[in-house]
Amino acid sequence: MFGTSVKFESKKEGLTVNKKDVRFFPIFLGATAGVLLEIIATLVDEIVVGNLFTDEAFASVNLIEPYTLFEVFIAYLVTVAAAALIVRAHGAGDREKMSQLFSQTIIVCGLVGISLTLVYVLFTPQLVRLVADDPAVYEHALAYFTAIRFYPLVDVFDTFLFAYVLYRGGFAHFYIAIISRIGLNALLSWFLGSQMGLMGIGLASIISLVVALAIKLTFVLSKKHGLQFRWYFNPREALEIAKLGFPESAISMFVVLMEMAINGFTLDHYGAAGVAAVAVAVNIFEFTFYLSEGISEYVIVAVNDSIGKNSSQSMDRAIKTMLRAALIEGMVLFGLILIGSGVLPEAFDIDNEETFRLATVMLRILSPTALFICLSRVTAIFYQYTRRITRTLLLFGMAIALFPILFGRLFGRIAPEGIVAGLALGPVTAFALMYGYVRLIKKEKLFDYALMRLN
Hints:
Structural class: mainly alpha
Radius of gyration: 22 Å
Largest sheet: 2 strands, antiparallel
Distance between the termini: 29 Å
């Protein structure tokens, strides 16, 4: 069901290529576990700060988040599509192209990491005041950012190797790196935080990430999976890769836009209690979208591998696998959210009885949309790597930001539950419109693997 194989091998430019299909479960489980562990890793700082320092210190760490989100956006922009194109070249048996893409991405990672760090270092006080101008949080934010401003030097490389190692099948290195990062970050955050304050917390994050990066490098430098580095840089190709990766990279910006708009509207109309209830639903919406990463990573690898092989049969099997997986995961998440609606608000520390009841109702309204979140995610990723960038960007933008904001504000004027009803309608409407456009206007199948020949 999830990944048959065809026994067919070929050689091209010295690379022996096994033509069996990409296996679903290793990619799916690796990416899903990776997302969960990454979420835990990002929470370590906040948990330690909350236990060691004041509420103002906790708030200051969150106020710096826009800069870390921007760094994530840039890192995904320049690296994730490059890793996918290496898989495409591997499917084609073109080791020369694999080495060129790998080398160019390493160079781009260095340039981007240094440039972003220089901006953060040169304008540290100004950037901190921009988000934390209140005297109660400024010094805390400044101390944390003084360390975390060097994060891009490591994280851009780590983002690339995160995708590269996963896509090339280095699952053992992948798991060891993430688990080591979480454990070391937790230990160092507590120790350095006690000794150095918030600067120590930020420093612990960087040290733990360096260790994780070193573990992934052992996979990259191995004889079997390693690629020869060379001084290769094609600016036009680098821009094309960034263009290809932009829609997936923009997910973080769409999420921020949606959350700010929904929270602002809710606060104006239903006060802090309404924000607390809606925040539970918004967090579950985002969490569902992040969990669908597992299937989308399989889609990235399988689609690019099939394009590299120029195999419509391989693409056909990959499409059937991803559709089954999206439907199954969507239904499972639907059931889990529905069943857990009575206890999930407690996990977010909702104590007020009326707010708890409201959050429970909102989760029940939201639960069916999990199916369309999964379908929207895999559809957008398919179009992204068959060069239908506009479709991808529109689908992501409509599903995550445009329609949730529009419908949430429209129905939210009637009742607070209407905000979440609008949020739930976002992915449903986005997927329906894309399906109608493709089938009725473009006269194509939703997943037309004839598009795979686009290079």
